[in-house]
């Protein structure tokens, strides 16, 4: 079955303060970068290819299989600016939807995009959840929201959850056992825990993350 014509947007614009600075997606987990693992998981699910949201010199991501998109607004106003960059890039190339994911989430589910696409109408937001927690930056976004998002950011608003609540969102949920598929690496302790989970899986961190239900 062909992958949906969705652009996959990997968010890598954070400043990684809890990791001591630098690019979290370039940290290594069992010999491979977090970014490589996210690309491996997300790429086959996105029929329109991948893009990376990151500021600064794009050369440090020279191996990435897609464009590197800087924030379209100054002062690094957070993940919504990266999502706006993805929406504007996708709209400029005739794409209707973008799925955003964190660049530090190495166990993304293999059915992420398909289930988000099935969760709600094409013109709406669909949000991923695991257990009782919603993941605001792991979501499917229609490009028709880009003008409203730019206006929202232009008013000094930064909260991802508030923008989602403004429009409403369908939710697709995954279990957190045996591994939360949206586990992200924020601290050195998180990185050690992720490595332990990957080794325990017996497949270099390639935990399935599939869900049996909505």
From TrEMBL:
Transmembrane segments: none annotated. GTP binds at residues 11-13, 24, 71, 104. It is found in: Cytoplasm. Its cofactor is Mg(2+). Its main location: cytoplasm. It is an enzyme of class 2 (transferase). The keyword Oxidoreductase does not apply. GO terms for biological process: bis(molybdopterin guanine dinucleotide)molybdenum biosynthetic process. Residues 8-161 form the MobA-like NTP transferase domain. This is Molybdenum cofactor guanylyltransferase. It comes from Methylobacterium oryzae CBMB20. The gene is mobA.
